[in-house]
Design brief:
heterodimer, A: alpha+beta, Heat Shock Protein 90, five-stranded antiparallel sheet, 5 strands, 32% helix, B: alpha/beta, Transcription Regulator spoIIAA, 40% helix, globular
Chain lengths: 160, 111
């Protein structure tokens, strides 16, 4: 993960914000991607950057979602129920921040990467880290505001 | 967007044509299709991604798993990719050096 303290936010408070609260179902990842693309467009980012952010936000949100198949160690009866996924997108001209977390209490089932890695192994996580490293300026975890958040920021132009 | 699959042949290679978006939701279907093609002895499988508009790390992980399984049995898994965004994801993850990647199914099967 890249450090989160090195890139300042744009001057002034970027008050434009879009908030999604999604049932934690993998098939709804497309909604988060769609919102990310729309917000990136509103931020005036290039088509390539919009595509990059679609993927980056998908990677961020995927870490919280239970895969649609059983993981080793799951109890009989299927995957455990996870709380809703909250996605927040803040933007200003040439700048976008995405944050996501589960709305349940800290430590609830389905935290970042838990079941996902039991299903897919560490390979997908390593690939996801490489994708985020390449596509955004910063990404990582934050504490506070109701639990653990994953966050990424992107500023127009090539990643620093 | 839904994902859809077709299976064809190109020479001696089995071809899995994928259309749509491959993510956490659709990756299990891709894995099942590849498991089906990977059984029955060593063979070359070409995954046609020219109709795929989006793939994330979960989809890539499925392709890597299938590649390992096929190569362990003396086979191979190759990719047909012509969209810049898909090629970019392969490049930034380093998978463009792991898979044989060609712009068409015919080239992927022939090499």
């Amino acid at each position: 993960m890249r450090g989160l303290a090195s890139q300042p936010e744009p001057a002034g408070d970027p008050t434009d914000r879009v908030v999604l609260v999604l049932p934690p179902r993998p098939e709804l990842l497309a909604v988060a991607r769609l919102a990310a693309a729309a917000v990136a467009s509103q931020a005036g980012l290039s088509l390539e950057e919009i595509e990059d952010l679609r993927l980056a936000v998908d990677e961020l949100c995927s870490r919280f979602l239970p895969p649609a198949i059983a993981a080793p160690g799951d109890q009989p009866g299927g995957a455990p129920t996870a709380p809703p996924l909250r996605v927040e997108l803040r933007f200003a001209p040439g700048w976008l921040e995405a944050r996501c977390r589960l709305e349940g209490p800290p430590g609830s089932v389905g935290g970042p990467g838990s079941r996902r890695e039991r299903v897919w192994g560490g390979e997908a996580r390593a690939l996801s880290d490489r994708i985020l490293d390449a596509l955004v300026d910063e990404h990582g975890a934050d504490e506070g505001g109701g639990g653990a958040w994953l966050r990424l920021t992107h500023r127009s132009g090539p990643p620093s | 967007m839904e994902v859809s699959f077709d299976e064809t042949e190109e020479g001696d290679a089995a071809v899995l044509v994928v259309r749509g978006e491959v993510d956490l939701s659709s990756a299990p279907q891709l894995r099942q299709r590849l498991l089906g093609l990977a059984t029955g002895g060593p063979r070359t499988v070409v995954v046609d991604l020219t109709g795929v508009s989006f793939i994330d790390s979960t989809g890539l992980g499925v392709l890597v798993s299938a590649l390992k399984r096929l190569r362990a049995e003396g086979g191979d898994l190759r990719l047909a990719v012509d969209r810049p965004q898909i090629a970019k994801v392969l490049e930034i993850t380093g998978l463009d050096t792991v898979f044989l990647v060609a712009p068409t199914v015919e080239e992927a099967a022939r090499r």
